[in-house]
From TrEMBL:
<feature type="domain" description="GH15-like">
    <location>
        <begin position="8"/>
        <end position="936"/>
    </location>
</feature>
<dbReference type="GO" id="GO:0005886">
    <property type="term" value="C:plasma membrane"/>
</dbReference>
<comment type="similarity">
    <text>Belongs to the phosphorylase b kinase regulatory chain family.</text>
</comment>
<feature type="lipid moiety-binding region" description="S-farnesyl cysteine">
    <location>
        <position position="1252"/>
    </location>
</feature>
<dbReference type="GO" id="GO:0005964">
    <property type="term" value="C:phosphorylase kinase complex"/>
</dbReference>
<keyword id="KW-0808">Transferase</keyword>
<keyword id="KW-1003">Cell membrane</keyword>
<dbReference type="GO" id="GO:0016301">
    <property type="term" value="F:kinase activity"/>
</dbReference>
<keyword id="KW-0321">Glycogen metabolism</keyword>
<dbReference type="InterPro" id="IPR012341">
    <property type="entry name" value="6hp_glycosidase-like_sf"/>
</dbReference>
<keyword id="KW-0636">Prenylation</keyword>
<dbReference type="InterPro" id="IPR011613">
    <property type="entry name" value="GH15-like"/>
</dbReference>
<comment type="pathway">
    <text>Glycan biosynthesis; glycogen metabolism.</text>
</comment>
<dbReference type="InterPro" id="IPR008734">
    <property type="entry name" value="PHK_A/B_su"/>
</dbReference>
<dbReference type="InterPro" id="IPR008928">
    <property type="entry name" value="6-hairpin_glycosidase_sf"/>
</dbReference>
<keyword id="KW-0418">Kinase</keyword>
<dbReference type="InterPro" id="IPR045583">
    <property type="entry name" value="KPBA/B_C"/>
</dbReference>
Amino acid sequence: MRSRSNSGVRLDGYGRLVQQTILRHQDAVTGLLPASADHQDAWVRDNVYSILAVWGLGLAYRKNADRDEDKAKAYELEQSVVKLMRGLLQCMMRQVDKVEAFKYSQSTRDCLHAKYNTHTCATVVGDHEWGHLQMDATSLYLLMLAQMTASGLHIIHSLDEVNFIQNLVFYIEAAYKTADFGIWERGDKTNQGITELNASSVGMAKAALEALDELDLFGAKGGPQSVIRVLSDEVQHCQSILHSMLPRASTSKEVDASVLSVISYPAFAVEDRELVEVTKQEIITKLQGRYGCCRFLRDGYRTPKEDPKRLYYEPAELKLFENIECEWPLFWAYLMIDGIFSGNMEQVQEYREALEGVLIKGKNGIRLLPELYSVPPDKVDEEYRNPHTVDRIPMGKLPHMWGQSLYILGCLMAEGFLAPGEIDPLNRRFATVPKPDVVVQVCILAETEGIKAILQKEGVDVETVADVYPIRVQPARILSHIYARLGRNKQMCLTGRPYRHMGVLGTSKLYKIRKTIFTFTPQASRSCLLLSPQFIDQQQFYLALDNKMIVEMLRTDLSYLCSRWRMTGRPTITFPISHTMLDETSSSVHPTVLVMLQKLQDGYFGGARIQTGKLSEFLTTSCRTHLSFMDPGPEGKVFAKSYKLSSDSFEKLDTEGWLHGLQVAEDEDTDDEVAQYLDHLLQHTTPQSNLPPTTQQGGLSRFRAAVHTTRDLMSLASKAKGLHVQNVGMYVPSRIFQASQQSVKLLSSPQQHDLDGKSHTPYTEMNLPHDEDGNVDCKALVDQLCICPTLQEQADILYMLHILKGPEWHTGLDSEPGPTVKELLTELYVRVGETRQWALIRYISGILRKKVEALDEACTDLLSHQKHLTVGLPPEPREKTISTPIPYEELVGLIDEASEKNLSVSILTQEIMVYLAMYIRTQPALFAEMFRIRIGLIIQVMATELAHSLRCSAGEATENLMNLSPSDMKSLLYHILSGKEFGVERSVRSVDSSLTTAVSICDMGAVGTTRPERTGLIRLKSEIKQNHKLLSSSWLCSCGILNFAAASVVLVLSAQSAGHTELLGKDSFSSMLEDQGSKDSRQGQWQRRRRLDGALNRVPVGFYQKVWKVLQKCHGLSVEGFVLPSSTTREMTPGEMKFAVHVESVLNRVPQPEYRQLLVEAILVLTMLVDMEVHTIGGIIAVEKILHIANDLFYEEQKALGADEHMLERDPSTGICSLLYDSAPSGRFGTMTYLSKSVALYVYDFLPTDGCSMQ
């Protein structure tokens, strides 16, 4: 008999250790492991981690087998792993109804349980009696299922189980927006059952999704039906959110040792090597002690100060746990394994020796890893005084199987029994390795042969849809409908993937369905897909009606592809050119689109390397996916009992209607069946024309004059005075705050009172047509539609009918019953979209309640980047805060309520939310030090900027804002967020037989502006190209504006500084502009700068950490009667986002942005005292009092210098001099000078006697 090798002896030793500490506890029936001898419940997470050592030992035996007995031992160990993983699978499959419900609700009441009965796989505690929602636990199971399957284990045995795992993928793919209880089951660290978004959950979900993508769960014995599919866009959502969170762990935890599992083994979820290192050092620096690492700062679990009789903590109680948090050796095991994977053998040796020092000897000399080490109760005070000096005692589970397993796994790897690739067969450890540059393949398609000819004249070689046959082209929404079939299982009542918009990563693949290759156009072009009438999407939002916006969206998509593409093969974008992308003459391509096409052909656009060509040329280099779940079923058909789909099923994105296809004859080819199914999906968006064309004859002038008020754009803050917002006119032009004009929605009220106290009777005031009984004659209104001269008048009439009769009222137009009001509005929306009347487009979109594409996803993106949102104007309760993801309908309802039911403001709020989400995905730096985004104030500032730059009234500014194209609106938002200079160009164009003012936003370079050091907030530059004789033209005199046809006024704004006005016009135009244009516009620059910063909630870097230190030296800060108590520091640490949000919420009680910003400056001066040797600076400090003292000092000094009362006019609501608002922070007369003096006076009694003289 061959003698046992030394390695074999060592393996046998680990085998005994595994048997004694882990396997002897495994249930013989279910395969589950109890938490300990005293806790018979089986936690999902603990079970998976505990079995890793068994799996690793089995791999080691398989690799180092000396004898047949070793191979048998390897098989036995591996089957123990399979048994446990299948036991957990049985536990979860018994809750299949929860998986199905959770896909749609993401609610804590619908989640899988976190623990089960070890002996029966049954649940052990109620849905609401435990913090069950732990995305990391489910994700960890899926991740290790993938790794173990890749290593050769057969865990999944049937297609039903495959479908269940596929639905678990849907369960975790929303982890990036799902607040859960986290790895420690407590949620927010106050332990009060509050869920929060956790980096450990997001990272583990991202790793599981990547690991399962395209994995065959049957291993080498599988086929297409057993392959798991993951949508790449969901993975990248997780990555984006994870990168934005780290090194912070959650809102309430500025650092958490659990993140080690995300940045290293087992997840390897972070691709940025520098971020991995920063996060690891943050954990080691702040959490490491003599016996391990704390879980997080102020963790009270098992400390002497924790009250075991109470489940929850009092907020101020958290301070008691500081410096006495229990230390967990578990995290040293993570760090040892991390050293092995990173090749840092010094780190491996350091932590292995550290672990040896904290192990406890059990029976038979077996060394056990305890759960944690705690400070002895009689040594607490000493530990408070001298942290990390007291000898601690082991407590909790012994052994802690989770930690014991990782320790054994690390030892097996450290001694060479296992290589990193053996426990990571999917190669996740290479996440931080730089990826090769991505080349994006772009295929440009023409809608018609005519457009193809036009493009060829411009030197752009393209194909039509017919040319690319047999490859089929479909819009992205069809792919979303197809993926909704994935994972369906009738026996388990699983409906498949919830309908979600398809991202650019998903549409950049080629798909094989049956025997046909499909390509799907990206969302950026979804509403311009006019390849045939059936491609018109009636549910489209108006953003993509703007060609410039389409180009910007494509630019963003290409940039995103370059940074996020991780799949085999190149991404392929199919981009259609439709007739809407031609100019007004339809004889050439729109200039913006043409420039984009030329750049694409040049090979570089949006920061991406581009390869243009034909689809057929890209077949061999593209990423391709076979959608096997669309293959014929047992009966040879995909779709069983089918029924026709109503258009409502698409409108509501119903989850059942489109899961069924068309009923086809038995002898039809199955490929034709798929084609008919897709055609059926498309047919529901084919428009039917019912609306009569506009006429050039009158007939409605009197009616239109009255009913125009029903859609006049409401001022962005029309009711501020009614809500007692003081001095609102100070920061928005006064006319913006006039009462809303007469509205049809007031018909239910007998009288309407405006701000002047006058009452109006709606029917008599509006002169609506009446019948014999005195009621509004709706049939007469329908008749008026046939003689309307403009689209505007048609919109007014249809809005009136919408209010009076409802959207489903049949108009009887042309025939009985005739089209409904909604159908006519929908057609009008398409017509208006062709004329690009943006205010009218937004207005009709609001009436129709158009679904803003992915509005809830946009909101979730902002929230997931740890930004709270507010909609509506301050103060509360009108300004509504959104802090957690909410369903689409609820979100729209909240916006409507905050907008006070004004359609235009509501739809603009939704539009701005979408743009903010675009920017936070691509340029997160724009939102630095912003924790709350106040959309109402941002819209207000946008209107104010237009009013200042165009030097127009508030009503005109509001109308100009609403008339901005989506691309210009997005550009204006960008310049406000970034503080960069921009130009505003106003011109007049003929639309719908009338003259319309068009306003556009352009970069500084676009208007020829130089001198980047310029300090002006407004510069007026007039370029008059029209002949002097046009002055006498009648239309110019009647319209009363200085801009027309080829004449334009260009204004340049800077959010940074001020300068002088230049006048470049000639003749009489020069004299007309001279008085206004030659004025020095330096005045007002700092007030506007403060208004912008206040509206955006901008503060200096490190501001909140400094506030925390101030609170430690006083009893609290009072801001306008709201107190931020010093006790806050006992609950929260300085780096907590929760603390920053709390401070922000107090500051946001101040409605005026610039006044808020001066209060921030006052607090900044207070923070300077923190670094002084001052023990206390008083009780509750009234920050506004400091500001008023500074204001008085400023007033007296300016008065002494000869300033008159007009210059020193005070804001009646706050008492602050307008000149102080407009003063620079620094300098002899800067705000900081007076605030510093004010602070010194206010806290004089607490300052040191030396070195604090008053100047």
